[in-house]
Design a protein that fits this description.
mainly alpha; 2 helices
């Protein structure tokens, strides 16, 4: 009877050890997932900030061109020299 009880105790200890190991692996995988998501989030934020900065620069460039009576496209093209048929030169 005592031998059976010792075997049951050993089996329970082994089961508990396996569960602890499985849990530890799951925690490590979860931490990796969280880290990956954090990097993806940071990348997305950087892209949004870059787009926002670009939009602001385009808006400001458009305002500067309006002050000179030209559109942004005309201002961009004027730096490329005279263009036949467009009616303006550098």
């Amino acid at each position: 009877m005592q031998l059976l009880r010792n075997n049951e105790i050993e089996a329970l200890k082994l089961d508990a050890t396996k569960k602890k190991e499985a849990h530890a692996k799951a925690v490590v995988q979860h931490e990796g997932s969280v880290e990956t998501l954090g990097k993806e989030l940071e990348s997305s934020i950087n892209k949004i900030e870059a787009h926002k900065s670009e939009s602001i620069m385009q808006r400001d460039a458009g305002r500067a061109c309006q002050g000179r009576g030209r559109t942004q496209q005309e201002d961009d093209l004027s730096g490329q020299g005279a263009r036949p048929g467009l009616g303006w030169t550098r």
